């Protein structure tokens, strides 16, 4: 009803004023209008003036202006004459100024090919050089709907129109005729209204229908309209206005409404949202005409403060002012919660505001204020998080304060605090009587504070429990207060709130008096049942839980220790752990560890040092810097200033020699230590390996001499790689560096060889694993006594590193030995060979046990010899050689003692080893012209008859207890087999290869493969290549060049294993 009252007096007053009726009555109606408009639901644009075009048009369809509003253009028609009518205005965009008819443009003169006969709307481009008309097709055959474009040679002068162009795709010609036209600000988009749809097109050239025109989308507005006429945008394309010519959604005898839509993306119909509309009365209530039923054309002035529309019913141009630029109406408050004068409102209720359109918070500082009488309870900035709902029609205000119960409040809203999407402001609420409500009592009484407070400490043991509530409360029967110990959740006391121990009912303070005092230094938890207390409105209190800790007046005490007093068999690496009855902090002083026997100080530890940890807890850990001695009694003394509790009470300390004592465990049997046995085994095996390796090196030389006894030059210099296990050292990989000129007398031959050793023995039940990496080099010289007999001597140097287990135990050894050897054929086919030698071993050992590292050095002497008998059976180039060999050795390891805690002393140890071998060698020579192919092979059985060896040891600190461990051979029986070939060509190319397998009866085994090549060119250059390995393989390439006695060598190697190694060597040798 307010809307009709708001506009009816204005219209009537205007009508009376025009008929010279009393001005007093007008002022009365103006007062009624202003008063009744405050708080109204919706306010339409205000009609300012009207102008009739009925003389020129009886069916008016469109309106537009030039850029300054001094020219107005109407599209319309009279029977038989469709035209564009041009008017001039003495004041731009003002119908109350002088309005004169200028000219008409008869569209029949431009009877288009489309048969279009009436313009439904009119628009110009930005400079007035083009005019656009959406035209409805006539009833003539072939006539169709189209958009027509005219060029104007004089801007905004319709009499200069020419060069008609039309645009008539199916989207225009099909169905309803286009009724409205509009462009974006750059002319690259065109918009048409057609039926209930708004169509959006793109133009490849601005304002040019001859360019590529593409339909982008169609938006159906049938949810609001029954049919559309004209349309217009605001100046930045974010608001769209359309004229509804036949609304099905208004229950009245009228049809026509103007709708306002927002576009979140300028000129993009896909982002369109309805935000507002005029009432049906707006388009009817012109100043002098009762009904303007059919608005069609729509236009704005240059800043959007005025709205112009034309109607087809009365053929009027209506000028109206807008409440805001490009705004049909201001947002109004349609309802709110709580409603005005509401009672019993919750003290924590939100305030909900429902608006007539989509609104949002202002961007400037504006407030919604809650007041109690003249007092401001809270001023809420609309830009804050308490204001929600922007972008919708409902705003929610969430006060941060809890309102008082049964209290009257009113709400004030700043003008402009809330705006619509067009920026139009809600007028706000400034009256104390517009939005009022009264709270009820809906909030339960809450606990404001307690004594003791939650988490309080050092509470007096005789304290009462005091509960302070937010309002007066009464005690309810049947509810309990429970006092518990927090540590184990045990119940100390249960108190009925209706008992005499609970007082204060009817007030805001309740006092609880426990039956007994609290214990000291204990944390308690108080639990109060829910609904134990009610307020006057029967709102029940929630359950209450809080904790506190009583005071501490006692000194901390030691409740246990590890080791305990008089403990025995304590680990020598043990920490000392002290457990107190409460949390303690380190202060100052010493913890002193004494030996009982002799009363000597083992270690004095400052409590602030890193050896003492656990401050701030009830457990202190003491980590002595040194390991305790075995089988020793100790006692602990602690200064009285060493530890305090959190209240500053000091621990009394330990001053008695008998309060905390303990005895360490005995020394362990070293024969149960896997690293000790692994080290003994490795020394035993290494002694055997040194002897066996020395014998094999010389035996290989003797075999070479037998096979090449007819050669004049028997010098040989080799580098051999040997990958082996604990059984035997297979010799592999020969790199040759030969020299025809020797520094020895002409009847002596020299030789050399080098080895690299890798030996592994896995972890066993009693002993740790062993891994040995070693290398050696041998030099020798020998002389033929006659065509058969030969004698020689060799010196060998070896070095090895042995790792025992994985804890760091191991040793390094060096060996040097000297041997003499000889071979003597008994006849053409039988021969005997032998050697004898002496050697020295020096070893540096270390043993790691837990954090203890022990060191020692040990020497050894060796004697060894070998005797070999064989018979060669010749069948042409085929040779069959049975052999028998016996190897003997003796090693004496000197005694030595370790240095360190729990050091061991080892007695002298003798090692006797022997090996008897029987085998068969096979070789053949196959000749191809000047080339030779020599296949060969052998099989050998070995019996290891080495004696066992006893290793005796004792602790340096206890020489009376002797421990013994016996070494034995790993395998008693061994089988060794070799198969290979050697190929020699007339071009001095030599290729050789062999494969060797050694197998022991205890699963020990070794495999070796060798392939090598050697080429001696005619210019005294030698080339060699080899691939050798057992577990891992090594590829080598060598070049040797003789320049008149100056030997240039180049060698390159590549190790093929998981840890790839590459090596390049170059050398120059000069013989004189």
Instruction: Tell me what portion of residues adopts beta-strand conformation.
Output: over 45%
Mean pLDDT: 83
Structure annotation, total helices: 4
Major β-sheet annotation: 20 strands, mixed
Distance between the termini: 134 Å
Share of residues in helices: under 10%
Uncertain spans, ≥5 residues at pLDDT below 50? 1-42, 248-254, 719-742
- Taking all Cα atoms into account, the compactness measure Rg is 58 Å
Extended strand count: 75
Q: Tell me, briefly, the overall form.
A: flat
Structural class: mainly beta
Task: Report what the structure shows.
The chain has 1072 residues and is mostly beta strands. It has 4 helices and 75 strands. The protein has a 20-stranded mixed β-sheet that branches. Strands 6, 7, 8, 9 and 10 form a 5-stranded antiparallel β-sheet that branches. Strands 22, 24, 27, 28 and 30 form a 5-stranded antiparallel β-sheet that branches. The chain is flat and about 155 Å long. The model is unreliable at 1-42, 248-254 and 719-742 (pLDDT under 50).
Task: Summarize this entry quickly.
By secondary structure, this protein is mostly beta strands. It has four helices and 75 strands.
């Amino acid at each position: 009803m307010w809307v009709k009252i708001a506009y009816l007096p204005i219209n009537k007053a205007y009508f009376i004023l025009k008929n010279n009726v009393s001005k007093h009555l007008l002022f009365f109606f103006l007062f009624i209008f202003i008063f009744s408009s405050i708080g109204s639901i919706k306010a339409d644009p205000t009609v300012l003036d009207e102008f009739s075009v009925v003389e020129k048009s009886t069916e008016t369809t469109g309106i537009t202006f030039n850029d300054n509003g001094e020219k107005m253009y109407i599209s319309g028609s009279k029977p038989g004459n469709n035209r564009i009518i041009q008017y001039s205005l003495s004041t731009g965009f003002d119908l109350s100024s002088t309005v004169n008819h200028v000219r008409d443009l008869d569209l029949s003169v431009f009877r288009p090919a489309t048969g279009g006969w009436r313009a439904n709307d009119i628009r110009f481009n930005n400079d007035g050089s083009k005019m656009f008309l959406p035209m409805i097709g006539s009833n003539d055959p072939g006539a169709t709907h189209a958009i027509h474009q005219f060029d104007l040679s004089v801007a905004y002068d319709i009499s200069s129109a020419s060069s008609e162009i039309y645009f008539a795709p199916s989207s225009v010609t099909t169905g309803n005729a286009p009724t409205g036209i509009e462009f974006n600000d750059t002319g690259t988009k065109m918009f048409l209204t057609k039926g209930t749809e708004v169509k959006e097109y793109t133009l490849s050239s601005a304002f040019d229908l001859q360019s590529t025109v593409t339909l982008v989308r169609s938006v159906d507005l049938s949810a609001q309209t029954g049919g559309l006429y004209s349309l217009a945008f605001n100046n930045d394309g974010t608001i769209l206005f359309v004229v509804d010519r036949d609304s099905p959604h208004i229950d009245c005898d009228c049809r026509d409404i103007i709708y306002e839509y927002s576009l979140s993306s300028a000129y993009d119909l896909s982002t369109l949202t309805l935000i507002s509309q005029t009432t049906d009365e707006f388009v009817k209530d012109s100043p002098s005409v009762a009904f303007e039923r059919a608005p069609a054309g729509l236009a704005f002035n240059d800043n959007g403060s005025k709205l112009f529309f034309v109607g087809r019913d009365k053929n009027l141009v209506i000028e109206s002012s807008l409440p805001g630029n490009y705004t049909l109406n201001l947002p109004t408050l349609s309802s709110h919660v709580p409603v005005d004068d509401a009672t019993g409102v919750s003290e924590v209720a939100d305030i909900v505001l429902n608006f007539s359109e989509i609104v949002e918070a202002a961007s400037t500082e504006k407030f919604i204020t809650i007041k109690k009488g003249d007092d401001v309870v809270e001023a809420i900035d609309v830009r804050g998080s308490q204001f929600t709902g922007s972008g919708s029609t409902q705003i929610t205000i969430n006060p941060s304060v809890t309102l008082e119960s049964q209290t009257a409040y009113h709400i004030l809203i700043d003008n402009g605090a809330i705006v619509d999407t067009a920026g139009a402001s809600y007028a706000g609420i400034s009256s104390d009587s517009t939005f009022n409500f009264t709270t009820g009592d809906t909030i339960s009484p809450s606990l404001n504070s307690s004594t003791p407070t939650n988490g309080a400490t050092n509470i007096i043991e005789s304290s009462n429990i005091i509960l302070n509530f937010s309002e007066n409360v009464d005690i309810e029967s049947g509810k309990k207060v429970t006092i518990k110990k927090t540590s184990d959740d045990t119940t100390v006391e249960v108190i009925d709130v209706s008992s005499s121990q609970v007082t204060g009912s009817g007030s805001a303070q309740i006092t609880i008096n426990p039956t007994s005092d609290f214990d000291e230094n204990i944390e308690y938890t108080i639990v109060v049942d829910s609904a134990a207390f009610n307020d006057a409105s029967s709102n029940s209190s929630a359950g209450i839980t809080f904790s506190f800790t009583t005071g501490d007046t006692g000194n901390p005490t030691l409740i246990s220790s590890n080791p305990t007093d008089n403990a025995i068999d304590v680990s020598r690496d043990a920490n000392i752990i002290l457990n107190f009855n409460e949390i303690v902090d380190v202060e100052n002083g010493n913890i002193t560890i004494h030996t009982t026997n002799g009363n000597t100080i083992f270690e004095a530890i400052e409590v602030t040092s890193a050896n003492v940890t656990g401050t701030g807890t009830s457990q202190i850990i003491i980590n002595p810097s040194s390991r305790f001695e075995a089988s020793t009694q100790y006692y602990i003394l602690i200064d009285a200033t060493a530890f305090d509790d959190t209240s500053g009470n000091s621990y009394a300390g330990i001053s008695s020699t008998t309060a905390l004592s303990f005895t360490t465990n005995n020394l362990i049997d070293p024969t149960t230590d896997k690293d000790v046995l692994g080290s003994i085994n490795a020394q035993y095996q290494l002694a055997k390996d040194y002897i066996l390796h020395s014998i094999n090196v010389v035996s290989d030389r003797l075999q070479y001499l037998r096979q090449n006894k007819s050669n004049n030059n028997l010098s040989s210099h080799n580098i051999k790689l040997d990958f082996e296990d604990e059984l035997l050292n297979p010799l592999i990989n020969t790199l040759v560096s030969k020299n025809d000129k020797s520094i020895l007398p002409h009847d002596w031959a020299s030789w050399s060889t080098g080895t690299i050793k890798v030996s592994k023995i896995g972890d066993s039940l009693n002993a740790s694993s062993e891994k040995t990496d070693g290398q050696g080099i041998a030099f020798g010289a020998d002389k033929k006594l006659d065509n058969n007999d030969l004698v020689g001597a060799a010196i060998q140097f070896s070095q090895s590193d042995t790792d025992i287990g994985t804890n760091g135990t191991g040793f390094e050894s060096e060996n040097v030995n000297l041997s003499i050897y000889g071979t003597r054929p008994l006849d053409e086919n039988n021969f005997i060979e032998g050697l004898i030698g002496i050697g020295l071993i020096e070893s540096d050992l270390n043993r790691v046990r837990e954090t203890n590292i022990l060191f020692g050095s040990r020497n050894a002497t060796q004697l060894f010899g070998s005797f070999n008998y064989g018979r060669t059976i010749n069948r042409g180039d085929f040779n069959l050689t049975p052999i028998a060999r016996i190897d003997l050795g003796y090693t004496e390891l000197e005694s030595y003692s370790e240095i360190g805690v729990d050091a061991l002393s080892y007695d002298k140890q003798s090692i006797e080893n022997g090996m008897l071998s029987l085998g068969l060698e096979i070789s053949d020579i196959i000749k191809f012209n000047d080339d030779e192919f020599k296949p060969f092979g052998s099989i050998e059985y070995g019996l290891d008859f080495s004696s066992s060896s006893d290793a005796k040891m004792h602790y340096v600190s206890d020489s009376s207890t002797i421990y013994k461990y016996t070494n034995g051979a790993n395998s008693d029986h061994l089988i060794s087999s070799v198969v290979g070939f050697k190929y020699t060509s007339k071009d001095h190319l030599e290729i050789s290869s062999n494969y060797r397998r050694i197998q022991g009866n205890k699963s020990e085994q070794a495999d070796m493969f060798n392939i090598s090549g050697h080429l001696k060119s005619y210019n005294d250059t030698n080339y060699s290549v080899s691939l050798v390995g057992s577990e891992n393989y090594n590829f080598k390439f060598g070049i040797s060049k003789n320049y008149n006695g100056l030997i240039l060598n180049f060698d390159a190697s590549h190790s093929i294993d998981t840890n790839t190694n590459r090596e390049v060597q170059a050398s120059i040798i000069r013989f004189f």
